[in-house]
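STRUCTURE:
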């Protein structure tokens, strides 16, 4: 498709119109004569989109436009200025796009321009290749789970196939095979949605190049690519315009890639991906382009939308409302997909996810290589994001350079977050044993319950003596949250519960707090501790989201609700969050365990002792979840008795619906 500029058969009027529009978008700009301080990645698609438009429509003005940007790019002595000139993203992007332009319109260019372009591609490709060889075992050359690796090698491969440089394509192919073998099979990505949309298209590009140039089909190798749309889908906020911002996310509007949606939809027959592609390239396109903080953004992907769109693929609106991605320990649950629906996203895993963490340790031990560069993965295990009524209510920090647990919806111990945090790469050089994980996961698509417990004690400084810090999160069928935090330490500690919001919470007369975001709201009621202190404060997060523009600095203001216990060797927080502030939550009296009821939905928890005793309910279980009209759900249960009747009695713990 890419090398031959040949899309799947069938009409594509919308994609053709997008291509022509994008090809003309820069006509009023003057190409730079010297390298700007900022990134020049955009120069590549400024040349490739009109080159493809000329191939499609034959308009000489498109040929002239492509030539204008080609000449601007090739006369720059280096690709990249502020950060790793010739050896990183700027060079990777330009190698890919200008090599495609050379392939598509090279014969139409004047001899001098064509020769200069070929020379420049050979020069930059050699620089990139030699750097990749020299730096093997460090930075992007062997950072298999990182967008720089995928982009730089895809650029090298594109130039290699176009110029016949087998040495380049073989090295890039070997790397691609390793990446596909090592990426998580569940399709999740620890760098977050923004870097998913920035980096994963280049994996798809490389796979297409490999199949077209060598006849090798690796689209199903490893399983990541076939499942990754589902990961992206479940990190979409209700209404589809915004994205959940776990990991480094410049904003909540930088998550869509219509071209990639189309390619995954076509390759794997995913109607929801085709539908999302139509939405992203249509209704959402200009809002995404205007408000996204990631450059060059969605508009330059017009060439991919044209070449990857397959009109034979059916489109269908998403309907699945629950998903769990075990490698990243990511639970996503929602009440629906409409604008006013409620979504929670809750995660806990080692740095980079389980497979990356374990495999990188082997690389370190066997080769002395450092292959896990997860500077975009935050110290956020146990944290969650809550979206409801079209607004973000419990929020994440977005992008940061000095990453801290205190910027997330997490817990502090004596005021301290994770060990070795407050730096860019919080997972670098920490002990292998310092891992978080999720356990006791329940998803019930038929009636809407979701449950998981995050174990995060290992993430804190060993000097604090934290033996246990478990957070259990329950999402009810109507979209309410119940959180139970259980903590234990070798000595008395202050335990602090953090809730991050976009605006300050309001104290209500009954002791609860109100989150407001525009017209949206949620009531927060904390039943335990009863003797703690609660304060609201402002937290500022400062970041430079791109090394290519070192002078750029962005500040995001969070409003933090802090609830702190008296000093104790054991800590407990029992919290209910009710979006729309509807039915008031009440604590359920329990002889053993802990409970919250919203009237029609009751949550009973005992994630450690696994013994629940209350009026009408006796269970040996981590959780019992009840509604008046439906069957009960249990987590890790061996026995359940309701109103004196035994309805479950099994030798091994059972999770799911009873009856």
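SEQUENCE:
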């Amino acid at each position: 498709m890419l090398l031959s500029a040949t899309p799947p058969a069938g009409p594509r009027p919308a994609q053709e119109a997008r291509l022509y529009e994008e090809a003309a978008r820069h006509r009023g700009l003057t190409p730079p004569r010297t390298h700007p301080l900022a990134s020049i990645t955009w120069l590549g698609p400024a040349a490739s989109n009109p080159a493809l438009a000329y191939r499609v429509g034959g308009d000489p003005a498109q040929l002239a436009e492509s030539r204008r940007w080609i000449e601007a790019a090739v006369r720059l002595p280096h690709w990249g200025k502020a950060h790793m000139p010739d050896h990183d993203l700027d060079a990777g992007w330009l190698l890919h796009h200008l090599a495609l332009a050379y392939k598509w319109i090279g014969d139409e260019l004047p001899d001098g321009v064509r020769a200069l372009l070929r020379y420049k591609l050979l020069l930059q490709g050699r620089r990139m290749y030699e750097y990749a060889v020299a730096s093997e075992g460090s930075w992007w050359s062997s950072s298999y789970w990182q967008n720089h690796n995928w982009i730089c090698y895809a650029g090298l491969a594109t130039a290699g196939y176009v110029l016949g440089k087998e040495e380049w394509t073989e090295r890039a192919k070997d790397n691609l095979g390793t990446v596909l073998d090592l990426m998580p099979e569940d399709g999740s990505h620890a760098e977050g949605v923004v870097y998913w949309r920035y980096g994963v298209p280049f994996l798809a590009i490389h796979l297409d190049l490999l199949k077209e140039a060598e006849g090798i089909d690796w689209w199903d190798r490893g399983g990541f690519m076939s499942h990754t749309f589902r990961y992206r889908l479940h990190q979409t906020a209700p209404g589809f315009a915004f994205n959940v911002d776990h990991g480094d996310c410049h904003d909540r509007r930088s998550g869509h890639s219509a071209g990639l949606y189309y390619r995954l939809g076509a390759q794997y027959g995913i109607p929801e991906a085709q539908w999302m592609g139509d939405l992203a390239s249509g209704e959402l396109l200009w809002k995404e382009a205007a408000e996204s903080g990631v450059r060059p953004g969605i508009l330059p992907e017009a060439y991919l939308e044209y070449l990857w769109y397959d009109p034979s693929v059916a489109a269908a609106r998403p309907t699945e409302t629950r998903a769990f991605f075990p490698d990243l320990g990511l639970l996503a649950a929602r009440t629906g997909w409409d604008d006013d629906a409620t979504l929670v996203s809750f995660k806990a895993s080692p740095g980079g996810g389980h497979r990356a963490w374990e495999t990188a340790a082997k690389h370190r031990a066997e080769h002395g290589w450092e292959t896990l560069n997860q500077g975009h993965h935050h110290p956020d295990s146990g944290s969650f994001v809550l979206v409801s009524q079209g607004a973000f209510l419990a929020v994440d920090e977005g992008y940061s350079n000095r990453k801290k647990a205190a910027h997330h919806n997490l817990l502090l111990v004596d005021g301290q977050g994770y060990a070795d945090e407050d730096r860019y790469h919080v997972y670098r050089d920490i002990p292998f044993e310092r891992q978080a994980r999720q356990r006791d996961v329940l998803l019930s698509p038929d009636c809407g319950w979701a449950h998981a417990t995050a174990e995060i004690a290992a993430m804190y400084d060993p000097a604090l003596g934290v033996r246990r810090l478990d957070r259990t999160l329950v999402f009810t069928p109507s979209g309410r949250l119940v959180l139970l935090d259980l903590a234990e330490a070798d000595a008395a500690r202050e335990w602090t519960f953090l809730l991050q919001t976009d605006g300050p919470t309001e104290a209500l007369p009954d002791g609860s707090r109100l989150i407001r975001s525009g017209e949206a709201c949620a009531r927060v009621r904390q039943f335990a501790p009863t003797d703690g202190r609660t304060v609201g404060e402002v937290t500022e997060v400062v970041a430079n989201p791109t090394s290519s523009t070192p002078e750029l600095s962005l500040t995001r203001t969070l409003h933090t609700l802090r609830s702190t216990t008296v000093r104790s060797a054991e800590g407990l927080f029992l919290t209910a969050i009710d979006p729309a502030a509807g039915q008031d939550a009440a604590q359920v009296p329990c002889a053993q365990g802990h409970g919250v009821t919203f009237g029609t939905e009751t949550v009973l928890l005992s994630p450690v002792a696994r013994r629940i005793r209350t009026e009408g309910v006796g269970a040996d279980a981590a959780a019992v979840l009840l509604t008046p009209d439906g069957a009960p759900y249990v987590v890790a249960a061996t026995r359940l008795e309701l109103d004196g009747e035994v309805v479950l009695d099994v030798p091994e713990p059972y999770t799911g619906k009873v009856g």
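REMARK: The chain has a mean pLDDT of 96.
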